[in-house]
Amino acid sequence: MGKIIIVGTGFSGSILARKIAEDCGRKVEVIEKRPHIGGNMYDEYDEHGILVQRYGPHFLNTNKYFIIEFLEQYAELFPHDTKLLSFLDGRYVRLPFNFESVQQLVGPKKSESLLAKLRKAFYGRDRVPILELVDHEDKEISEFGTLLFEKAFRTYTSKMWGTDINKIDKYVLERVPMAMSYDERYLNKDFQYLPKKGFSEIFQNMLDHPNISLRLNTDAIEHIQFEENTVTYDGEKVELLVFTGPIDELLGYKYGSLPYRSLDIRYEYSEKNSVLPAEIISFPQAEGKTRSTEYRKIMYDDKEAVGSVVVTEYPLWYDKNAVVGNIPYYPVNTAESNELYMKYVHEAERYGNIVLCGRLAEYRYYNMDVCIEHALEKFEEVKQRLG
Ligand SMILES: Cc1cc2nc3c(=O)[nH]c(=O)nc-3n(C[C@H](O)[C@H](O)[C@H](O)COP(=O)(O)OP(=O)(O)OC[C@H]3O[C@@H](n4cnc5c(N)ncnc54)[C@H](O)[C@@H]3O)c2cc1C
Description:
Layout: E1 3-7, H1 11-23, E2 28-31, E3 43-45, E4 51-53, E5 60-62, H2 65-72, E6 77-79, E7 84-88, E8 91-95, H3 99-106, H4 108-121, E9 127-129, H5 130-134, H6 139-161, E10 177-179, E11 191-195, H7 199-207, E12 212-215, E13 224-227, E14 230-233, E15 236-243, H8 247-250, E16 260-270, E17 280-282, E18 291-294, E19 308-317, E20 330-331, H9 335-349, E21 354-356, H10 368-386
Helix pairs in contact: 1-10, 3-4
This protein binds flavin-adenine dinucleotide.
């Protein structure tokens, strides 16, 4: 038996570490290059007593209650419905677009017939992709869908993914829903929660196990060697390598770099206790930025907090060597990048003992609930391997 090495302490790495340590009774070495655990979910109380998520805001939402029960083993959660406003044409409009936003955007008088048509056309449906509105045979419905696309989604998508604005077409609306009611919840997932004391507590408790040893501030790539068909870590044979970082980096960019979007995340402290009219404001029309979040508004207990912090996200291309934008946040999945990714997968498969897990290693945008469920499924595979 050789070493079991787990690279990364986001949900993917931390869950696999805990399960291997606890259920298989095996010792695992967890390697993390950042000075803290939790990956992009890391949060901490700042000097003003405000719980700040350092890599942008994260909200837990799922239709599967076992995800909530799983996390509750490690920290206390509380129900929290995420609410957003969009800043459009100089005023705040409800997001998701719903019957209230119809009134706001076309005016109450004109909305009367449009609302009646929407109710009839989409009777019994909770949320409808905006693309269905755009493609609808009724002119009034279709014009409203097109208005949403032009005002709220074309520029936003271009900023988010770095794509030329003229190349953004209506198909981006395929998965963007409108609520066919006055429902204000941003997502219509059944279970929406946040941890009472922040996400970091979950990771601390998950990694707190006698079979887990953790090394922070360590770039695993500098210690991993590939020799013929074996993987070693600091010269010692590795029985199992669970890798949750960028796969192209692990394999020395042999076939070229995979594209990722990154974020420039800017913080602004205010002595006021409340700054924004909602916890998140989306800025589809503004230059550069996509959204701002006021962390104090999502805290379970803000009695100790003084003032407020607003965090604003500016998307940009990932560049490993840049001062800003050196964290890969979002894989950019295209036919070309997916093909490149598969070359790395085939290369990794040659060694027979590398398990790729998570958003970066699998080059897929996973929400945290999917990421958690997937890590638990991967563990079942790993258990078979470890015997
Ligand atoms: C801005 C943003 C907002 C999001 N908001 C939501 C949300 O509201 N709701 C939701 O459900 N999901 C959200 N997500 C998705 C969620 O963050 C992910 O599903 C989840 O964090 C992925 O976990 P992971 O373990 O796969 O990856 P990560 O959290 O990225 O963990 C990978 C870890 O590996 C480490 N690592 C990488 N390379 C090395 C190396 N060479 N050596 C050592 N360590 C290494 C990294 O430092 C990192 O800690 C959001 C994502 C982003 C980017």
